Amino acid sequence: MGTTEIAPAILVIDDDALIGRAITRLAERAFPTFQVLWATNGIRGLELAQQHAAQLRLIVLDVQMPLLNGHLLAVQLRMLVPDVPVMPCTSYKAMLPALLELGCVVPVIKHPRLVDELPERMRQAMAVAVPALPSQPWVAALRQSGDAVLAFVGNRDPGSLAAPERDAAAQVRKAQELLAKYCARFPQPAREIIQARKALEESIRR
């Protein structure tokens, strides 16, 4: 008896219905032998990533979404499927340096010619070696923030809704403090570290 071959998969995580549907259809045309999955939020994206971990070859990630933003979701995905390339797709350039520090592949900036470029960028992303998730304090703080959000979603008791949100904000502030200490220790910290610090500050203001 022959065995059923499982098709490789691409996961698109984007809460914008128009863009998410367009990227999904584009991927289906460019990679006809692949199964293309689409999640409209980060929670569902994590569920699909876990369910299809053995098949996943690429995750296309919108970084500006409710509950789990790009930094928090990228850390969770990197932990869940560490060998799968995560390709950020966004118009928020300020968030990109920290995503690269987290081991994501070169991001795609949303612009009118995205449809023409995306298939080749996806092929390139699937061909690169995926680095390990950095074991740095600010990454651990982002992971804990993501864990707090997931706990919040999993526990909808009205009396406990505020605590996880406070915990998540506290962890992001902790990441900011750790980055500030790092910058203070070195007269000229790496540009990526400075930009990561700026991105975290912007996420607190939003």
In words, what does this structure look like?
The chain has 206 residues and is an alpha/beta fold. It contains eight helices and five strands. A five-stranded parallel β-sheet has the order 2-1-3-4-5, with helices on both faces. It is globular and about 50 Å long. The protein starts with 8 loop residues before the first strand and ends with a helix. The model is unreliable at 156-166 (pLDDT under 50).
- Are there runs of 5+ residues with pLDDT below 50, and where? 156-166
Major sheet summary line = 5 strands, parallel
**Global Rg:** 18 Å
Strand content: 5-15%
Strand numbers in spatial order across the main sheet: 2-1-3-4-5
Judged by helices, strands and strand pairing, the structural class is alpha/beta
User: What is the helix tally?
Assistant: 8
Order of helices and strands: EHEHEHEHEHHHH
Strands, count: 5
Could you give the distance between the termini?
Answer: 57 Å
User: What shape does the CA trace take?
Assistant: globular
Q: Assembly type of the shown chains?
A: single chain
- Mean of residue pLDDT values: 79
- The portion of residues assigned to helices is 40-55%
